[in-house]
Write a structure and sequence with these properties.
mainly alpha
């Protein structure tokens, strides 16, 4: 991306949002590990589904609505 395009985005807000999402993804990944450790299949499979939904939300939310563009 060119420097002019990069300057159009609020990097601090975007980084805070991505950080919060990564924290949630980490919690869900820990559920997957716990499910595998205790051999609880439904917990592992439901965690995979939740993980996919979070990632889909993350992609759609960040790429629509100009939420992280700086206001002129």
């Amino acid at each position: 991306m060119s420097k002019e395009k990069k300057d159009q985005y609020d990097k601090e807000a975007l980084c805070k949002f991505i950080g919060k999402c990564l924290f949630i993804i980490g919690l869900v990944l820990s559920l997957i590990v716990l499910g595998q450790f205790y051999n609880i299949a439904w917990l592992v499979y439901s965690s995979y589904i939740i993980e996919g939904l979070i990632l889909a939300f993350l992609l759609v939310y960040t790429n629509t609505g100009n939420r992280f563009k700086k206001q002129p």
